[in-house]
Every structure is written in structure tokens, then in C-alpha cells.
Amino acid sequence: MLEKIEKPSPAELDIIYPIKSIYENLESEYPNLYTNIGVKKDISKAPIILLTGMSGSGKDSVLEPLLESSEAHHIVTATSRPRRIADNEPEGAYIWMRDQLESETRGEYLEYLKEEYRLIESDDHYGNVYGLPFMSLMKDGVGIPILRVDINGIINLNKLLPLYRFQPISVGVLPDSWTQVYDAILGRGCEDEDEAKERLYEDFNNIEMYVKNANYFIHNSRVSDIDGCCGLDISVEALRFLVKKFA
């Protein structure tokens, strides 16, 4: 288990445990794509890609081109957090679950949400509930289904999805550095510096879960390669490679 490091700066984390150390010794079958826990296509089950990553890793940026080209479709999850209207968050980004009633305890509220929205998996994260409604999972779409989920969700869904005849393929999107993670959290304007650091430390302390549960890693670099190709474009092609491999 990784040792918990107390209150280092993002720059210090980049020295102590650079993000590239997660994938640099793994095999790569495509640029910026690294095999962590190999998995073969199971023809008896429908494939579903579980896309996860640290704050600021660029999950949405990597996914969006495949949604636009109909090579994949996004499974819409549910959340109780407020919509980020100031950030132009689309209304269809989530199924927006109701607020907790004054007459409900927290435990009652969580149980009611599971029943009302038929959540097959849920997590109470930073005071907000996130979950996967059964109807979202079963809804037809064009292209391979892709579900954005945190690392805890991947651990749960790796066990649950095969029960519904789905084969989960988990992909962790990694940024260049911890400094990039911190800047992305702070740049959202939803957290102050102390809160942003706490989110950063949470991402850092989740590394072991990524390493133990992700099938693949995509290094979504902001740096162009030696041929001048944009790092994001390479990451999009890496995800496209996986989509074609398992579709």
C-alpha cells in the first residue's frame, strides 16, 4: 500500500511520485496506451468501457470526439449535486436527482434514491450522491457504450456488470503531472486552495486502486510528440483503438 504523504505541494508530489511512474514500465500496443491488467474480448457478453481518471486528466476531451462520430455512446449516470451552470455544464450531462428532504436522515435519503432511480451502483462522494440507474445501462445507443465513473465505481461495476451480461473494460486517463491535477481543480472555481489540495491528496492516495483495477491507462499528454502531433489527438486515437478492439 502506498504510504500516505502529509501535505506536500503539487510540485513536491511530481518529484516524490511522478505520474509517469504508473505506466512507464507497462507494455504499450498503441501510442500513449498502456496495458495494466490484460483482458480478452468475451463474445458471450456486451462490451462496456469504464472511463475513469484523476481531476484534470481530460476524460471528457478524450471521449467527446468518439461520441460525435457515433463510434461510442455515453451512458448517462445520476447525481444529486447541483448542475454547474456557470461552467456551461449541459443539462443532459447527468440525470439530476432530487435534494434531500428535511424529514429524511442521510441514510434514508440514500436508500430512497436507490429505489426511486433504480441505482444498481452508487457512491456518496464529497456529500453528493453519484449512481448508475438501471434504465441508463439498458438504454440502446449507437456505438460501444462508455461510462464515466470514479475508481470506486470501477471496483463495484467490475463485479456487478457481468451479472447483466456486460464485459467491463476499465480505462484510466492520466495527466502529465500532479501540478496539472491541482491547477485543474483550482481552475474550476468550486474549491479554494485548501480544498483543492485535499482533492489532490485524494487522487494521489487512490493510485493503488487505479493500479489494482484498471485494465488500461491512457497518458493524455498536453505535450506534442516528436512529429508535432497533439497529445490530445493521440489520446483520442488510443481510445478509438480500444473501441475497435472490443466492439
UniProtKB/TrEMBL annotation:
One Pfam family matching this protein: Guanylate_kin
Lineage: Bacteria, Candidatus Dojkabacteria
InterPro entries named among the record's database cross-references: GK/Ca_channel_bsu, Guanylate_kin-like_dom, P-loop_NTPase
Record-linked PROSITE patterns: GUANYLATE_KINASE_2
Protein name as it appears in the record: Guanylate kinase-like domain-containing protein
Region forming the signal peptide: none
Source species of the chain: candidate division WS6 bacterium GW2011_GWC1_33_20
Superkingdom, taxonomy of origin: Bacteria
Domain Guanylate kinase-like: 46-244
